[in-house]
Design brief:
The complex is a heterotrimer. Chain A is mainly α. Chain A has a domain of 39 residues: Histone, subunit A (Orthogonal Bundle), CATH 1.10.20. Chain A is built from three helices and two strands; from the N terminus they run H-H-H-E-E. In chain A, strands 1-2 form a two-stranded antiparallel ribbon. In chain B, a hairpin with a 2-residue loop joins strand 6 and strand 7. The radius of gyration of chain B is 29 Å and the shape is elongated. Chain C is of the alpha/beta class. Chain C has two domains: 325 residues, Alpha-Beta Complex (Amidase signature (AS) enzymes), CATH 3.90.1300.10; 77 residues, no CATH class. In chain C, the strands form two sheets. An eleven-stranded mixed β-sheet of chain C has the order 1-3-2-6-8-7-12-13-11-9-10, sandwiched between helices. The longest helix of chain C has 21 residues. The chains are: A mainly alpha, B alpha+beta, C alpha/beta.
Chain lengths: 98, 437, 478
């Protein structure tokens, strides 16, 4: 496993849209690095033949029939947003719009 | 140096279900903004996706129609990225194990037949739509969570024409863009060829086609490096499809294009080449069948469709459903010809008028007084005029040049504005001119 | 508690409204910070409706008129639901969680929303945007997390019983720290629809109460298949009060996993286990030494799987459709970053860890690997079930610690979850029941873990401990 450093933290924070102060970058680099070092103990196990377990659920519920249910309505849904206009959610302009 | 374009196509198609892929909101088109939005498709905290069985059925139909190998166990995955029209901050799609793989679609390009491989088809949810104004954008989530399938072809396509044939045969409804795709591909082939020839390198990027300017434009600046961090969707257990379900869906499949092609040849007696062309597009095949049912003359319909109709459409760069003319009307036209109401020559004129205006043939014929004239006295009058005015040819004909009959028929038709019944003209001319020898 | 309240309500010794007022008054004097929001008016309205039902004698359930507290991670329609985060500080969900719908239909009264670690991420309830929860037994100590408020409210008599949620121990741990009973049901037995997701393949809603019977009553009301949750097993709920009676009559083979008893256990924790073992033997149950060999990897697996799923689940918090949004964002990037800067430190830390574990180039080494070891951990239990019916284990290596004692080193806090996360990873039910106090007077809990859908057995054994080994006092001032 490669070094987990401040650059990685900054890159990951960008992926997650988190804005970190330099102090936070330093702190998280240390803490998350520490946790990853601990997690490395998993490498001791040979899992080459092991299928990943994604969910412990064993009984499978049925699929949904193609039935309609009335929606709450634009007013209800949109009014929960801090910024809205003309029954739409309002955001700063999306770049590269086409 | 000669270059060969290598093209693969990824097509997103909406599955026609009443409700969305993961919630019970309506998929109705053109509803007011955010009218069909609920906490689930708006990504509210605590909400969960529940898969629409009908969407699965439709996806399976596509899988079977394209001869794919269905994965009886397929897995949904999250594609994580941030965008205002993506409510959850991830799209539920399929990644490692899609619903089916390894199929094919046979296409006809001119007289050539070609097999295009289908790499995979997977199910996914659509995102919402944004509308852009000065300094802000407005997000409408009506389309969010609409069921889609993505059909990925192998890079087996070699030209814009083949791409067009592939898209038309896929029987996708979004007709306008076929031509844009072909144009975009032609443009790209040119652009890339020139780039390579001048020593440049083709970049891996997303480009968009500007139909107004007829060029493709790079979207490189507007796209960030995406790390989608795909992982299996923990809110949905793997989709298990039983052999039974598969067979039930198979039995419900509508007639596939190749089956239709064969049926037209066998039952309607049209030539193989014509059938292949007609069934290469669902709209065209539908048009054809309706016209045939109206007049009962498949060969005639085939001739009109393959001849005049496709010629005019190509000239105008339009598709079958862009036309005003209805298949019923073509059928009616053919009935009129078969009944002798109008001549073939006149029919061509009527057809062009039908194509231009969408009027039905009866109305056109009436309006323009184009009914075929079989009235012997009228024809005889015209014949007399022609004989009188072409003494030389009459003499030649009478002395053995029977090929001149065509000339006389033409002259009589001209006299009668093309409306004379050719059969009657022929007969009467023969009588009037007498035997050649 | 619930049964006695039910008796009082149905015999008119007290009305639902009086009962609600009783608890609301106690909440006003609360020093533990168990509640984030108290819905006084709403509570009285619900109580009044319950009284109508009780008067008519129609449609009365064990929960009709019973005042409950709800962890603020569950969506309650039009009632503020914060998940203890600034990002949702004034969020009113447009819908009820399924568990809430079921409790409302049973006629329960809701007193308010309970404090917790932000987005359920924490083991001490010190990561709430609304302040830490203090342990009612000793206010200098943590109540445990993430359902700290749910546990403290039960102990301090601020609700008859409560709902919490458990992803890695978040019901069982605070139950143990506060001397209450807390149940984590089998994964898939209670609908997660409306439970704000932390880790989708691990989360379960769980009841907390002063007794196993209270937990049974709550579970009966909320369990069962749900068409809105594809991860909820399509089976009906059951009368767990009845089932635990039957289960209580049977004798079991109970496993003691040796990996849970390696040194480092606080002596009173080990001592409580011993007392429970003795009582079980005396009652005719068989105690068997077993091995769950991959126990030591549980925390590592959990802190990759859970945080990875969480990093994705929390991506929806962008301020666009609901929740906080700071005014004046001039670009999309600013909008996202400003909104998400409202996350607390623990949440940010886990998002970073989870995003990294899923990122290109690291997915196989971290997320996939962790999922593979998760299967090994589940296999350990599957093997154990061939020899035993249930497992007896500690809940935590120690009793509650002082506020601020473990906040410096996140990993130290995470290691506290060593005995609770395995049940979540394997999808198994687990219950924590009080089994004593330590020298400082802090509660000690013991844990039973069962096969899938063995809640009745767990509840029965918890009741056994209550009656045969140790009983915490109950004082709700009634």
């Amino acid at each position: 496993m490669s070094k987990f450093g401040a650059d990685t933290v900054r890159k990951v924070a960008e992926l997650a849209r988190l804005q970190l102060t330099e102090a936070e970058v330093t702190k998280f680099t240390e803490q998350v690095g520490h946790i990853l070092a601990y997690v490395e103990k998993l490498d001791a196990l040979d899992t080459a033949q092991v299928a990943p377990l994604l969910s412990p659920l064993e009984v499978v519920p049925p699929l949904r029939a193609d039935d309609l249910r009335p929606s709450p309505g634009a007013e209800v849904m949109v009014s929960l947003a801090k910024e809205h206009l003309y029954e739409s959610y309002k955001v700063p302009q999306v770049m590269g719009a086409h | 140096m000669d270059f060969e374009p290598v093209i693969g196509l990824e097509v997103h198609a909406q599955l026609t279900t009443k409700s969305k892929l993961f919630c019970a909101c309506s998929t109705e088109f053109n509803a007011p903004a955010n009218a069909h939005v609920c906490p689930v498709c708006a990504g509210h905290p605590g909400t969960l996706p529940v898969l629409n069985a009908k969407a699965v059925e439709h996806a399976l139909k596509a899988a079977l129609a394209l001869d794919c190998k269905v994965n009886l166990r397929s897995v949904f995955a999250r594609k994580n990225y941030f965008y205002p029209d993506l409510p959850k901050g991830y799209q539920i799609t399929q990644f490692d194990l899609p619903i089916c793989q390894h199929g094919h679609l046979d296409i006809e390009v001119g007289t050539r037949s070609k097999r295009v491989g289908i790499t995979r088809i997977h199910m996914e949810e659509d995102a919402g739509k944004s509308v852009h104004a000065q300094g802000y954008s407005l997000v409408n989530l009506n389309r969010a969570a609409t069921p889609l399938i993505e059909i990925v072809s192998e890079p087996d396509i070699r030209s814009a024409e083949e791409a067009g044939a592939y898209l038309r045969k896929l029987r996708i409804k979004n007709v306008n863009s076929f031509r844009f795709v072909e144009k975009a591909i032609d443009y790209e082939i040119n652009r890339q060829t020139q780039l390579i020839q001048s020593g440049g390198q083709v970049l891996q990027e997303t480009r968009t086609y500007d139909s107004g300017k007829g060029v493709t434009i790079s979207m490189r600046g507007k796209e960030e490096a995406h790390d989608y961090r795909y992982f299996p969707e923990p809110d949905l257990i793997p989709l298990m499809i039983s052999q039974e379900t598969l067979e039930t869906v198979r039995s419900k499949l509508p007639e596939l294009p190749d089956q239709k092609r064969d049926r037209f040849i066998a039952e309607l007696g049209i030539p193989a080449y014509d059938s292949a062309v007609i069934t290469s597009s669902r709209k065209l095949a539908e048009f054809f069948e309706v016209a045939v049912s109206r007049c009962g003359n498949a060969k005639a319909v085939s001739n009109w469709v393959m001849g005049e109709m496709l010629r005019l459409l190509k000239l105008d760069e339009r598709e079958v459903d862009d036309m005003e003319m209805q298949p019923d009307e073509l059928g009616a036209l053919i009935r009129m010809i078969d009944a002798g109401t109008i001549s073939n020559t006149i029919a061509k004129t009527v057809f062009e008028e039908m194509y231009k205006t969408g009027q039905d043939p009866e109305a056109i014929v009436k309006e323009k007084g184009l009914m075929q004239i079989s009235d012997t006295s009228a024809i005889l009058q015209a014949i007399d005029k022609v004989i009188a005015g072409n003494a030389g040819q009459v003499a030649e004909y009478r002395s053995g040049k029977d090929k001149l009959m065509g000339f006389f028929v033409g002259q009589v038709m001209k006299q009668m504005g093309g409306k004379a019944n050719p059969g009657v003209v022929n007969e009467l001319l023969k009588r009037k001119l007498g035997a050649t020898s | 508690m619930i049964l006695s309240l039910h008796e009082k309500l149905t015999t008119r010794k007290i009305s639902s409204v009086e009962l609600a007022k009783h608890y609301l008054a106690r909440i006003k004097l609360d020093k533990t910070n168990s509640y984030i929001s108290v819905e006084g008016n709403e509570a009285l309205k619900m109580a009044a409706a319950a009284d109508t039902r009780l008067a008519a004698g129609e449609n009365v359930t064990l929960l009709t008129g019973v005042p409950l507290g709800i962890k603020d991670l569950l969506c309650t329609k039009d009632m503020i639901t914060t998940c203890a985060s600034k990002i949702l500080a004034d969020y009113r969900p447009p819908y009820d969680a399924t568990a809430i719908v079921r409790l409302k239909s049973a006629g329960a009264t809701f007193l308010g929303k309970l404090n917790m670690d932000e987005f359920a991420m924490g083991g001490s309830n010190e990561s709430s945007a609304f302040g830490a929860v203090r342990n009612p037994v000793n206010h200098d100590y943590v109540a445990g997390g993430s359902s700290g408020g749910s546990a403290a409210a039960v102990k301090a008599g601020l609700a008859a019983a409560t709902l919490g949620s458990d992803t890695g121990g978040s019901v069982r741990l605070p139950a143990a720290y506060t001397g209450t009973v807390g149940l984590k049901p089998t994964y898939g037995s209670v609908s997660r629809y409306g439970l704000v997701a932390f880790a989708s393949s691990l989360d379960q809603i769980g009841p907390l109460g002063v007794s196993a019977e209270d937990c049974a009553i709550l579970l009966s009301a909320i369990a069962g298949g749900d068409a809105s949750d594809s991860t909820c097993a399509p089976r009906p709920s059951a009368d767990y009060l009845e089932l635990m009676k039957d289960a209580g009559a049977r004798k079991y083979r109970i496993g003691l996993p040796k990996e849970y008893f390696i040194g480092g256990l606080q002596k009173e924790v080990a001592g409580s286990i011993d007392r429970v073992v003795q009582a079980l033997k005396k009652a005719g149950h068989t105690l068997v030494d077993i091995s769950l060999p991959h126990t030591e990897y549980s925390v590592a697996v959990y802190y990759i799987v859970a945080v990875s799923e969480a990093s994705s689940n929390l991506a929806r918090f962008d301020g666009v459709r609901y929740g906080a949004r700071l005014a004046g964002d001039r670009s999309l990037a600013e909008m996202y970053k400003q909104t998400r800067s409202l996350f607390g430190e623990e949440v940010k830390r886990r998002i970073i860890l989870g995003t990294f574990a899923l990122s290109a180039g690291y997915y196989d080494a971290y997320y996939k690997k962790a999922c593979q070891v998760r299967r090994l951990i589940k296999n350990d239990f599957d093997k154990a079930w061939q020899r035993v019916d249930l497992v007896l284990a500690p809940v935590s290596p120690t009793t509650a610690f002082k506020l601020g004692e473990k906040t410096a080193d996140p990993l130290q806090m995470y290691l506290n979850d060593i005995f609770t996360v395995p049940a979540n990873l394997a999808g198994l039910p687990g219950i924590s029941v009080p089994a004593g106090r330590d020298a400082k007077g802090l509660p000690v809990g013991v844990q039973f873990i069962g096969k899938p859908f063995a809640e009745a057995e767990l509840l029965a054994l918890a009741k056994f401990v209550e009656s045969e080994v140790y009983s915490e006092g109950v004082d709700h001032g009634l």
